[in-house]
Design brief:
Strand 7 (about 180-185) and strand 8 (about 190-200) form a beta hairpin. The strands form 2 sheets. The chain has a 4-stranded antiparallel beta sheet. It is built from 4 helices and 8 strands; from the N terminus they run H-E-E-E-H-E-H-E-E-H-E-E. It has 2 domains: about 1-50; about 50-200, Immunoglobulin-like (Sandwich). The protein is an alpha+beta fold. The chain is about 30% helix and about 30% strand.
């Protein structure tokens, strides 16, 4: 019998068709993957370009026991606004304040956890702050607008002993800045976390 060329041709055509279909599917998949990667890179770039820019100043009041923290959303202009801003006061130095073992040196770990290691904290009744004075009530802000917060001196830890504990605590923070972290949200974007370090001006003297 002769070779069934019609069947061979039909089978070969089917194989070529399957290969072509598979190649087109792989090409489409690669194109989609590339498009997704490009879109992700573009989203990340746009997110970075819209990182909030804050101008923050600290104005101590007479005696230095209180201060005004002035937060101004300076840009970028295309951001237009932030739907929510959370401000947290963080420790003012780079020491490691790991929680001590329970009862060691008479330190309560819970008290240690809420202690603010820095010169100032939020004044609770004025800012809706938490009990430790670390965070204030969240707020919205448009670019070009600002907000003022009332600060007060932090208290020395309850385990500090001696009649000079207050003086020693204040001396600990001489020359140290006030450090903040802004957590910023706007609909349609991933949150931004913006650290900020505010130098303390010379405090006014009482005469």
């Amino acid at each position: 019998m002769g070779t069934p060329w019609a069947s061979v041709i039909a089978g070969t055509t089917a194989v070529f068709s399957a290969v072509a279909t598979g190649g087109a599917w792989l090409a489409a998949r690669r194109a989609n993957s590339t498009a997704e990667a490009v879109a992700r890179i573009e989203r990340d770039r746009w997110h970075a370009d819209l990182t909030p820019q804050f101008r923050v100043t600290l104005e101590p009041k007479r005696g230095g026991d209180a201060a005004d923290l002035i937060v101004h959303l300076a840009g970028p202009f295309p951001l237009h606004r932030l739907d929510e801003i959370r401000v947290e006061v963080t420790q003012s130095n780079d020491r490691d304040y790991d929680t001590p073992a329970a009862g060691r040196h008479g330190v309560d770990p819970e008290q240690w956890a809420v202690q603010l290691w820095g010169p100032y904290k939020f004044l609770r009744r004025a800012n809706g702050a938490d009990s430790a004075g670390k965070t204030a009530r969240p707020f919205a802000l448009a670019v070009g607008k600002g907000r003022t917060f009332a600060l007060t001196r932090t208290d020395p830890p309850p385990w500090w002993r001696g009649n000079d504990s207050e003086a020693r605590w204040r001396a600990r923070w001489i020359g140290k800045p006030v450090r903040l972290v802004f957590t910023c949200r706007r609909d349609g974007f991933e949150p931004w976390m913006v650290p900020c370090e505010v130098e303390r001006p010379v405090e006014p003297q009482v005469y």
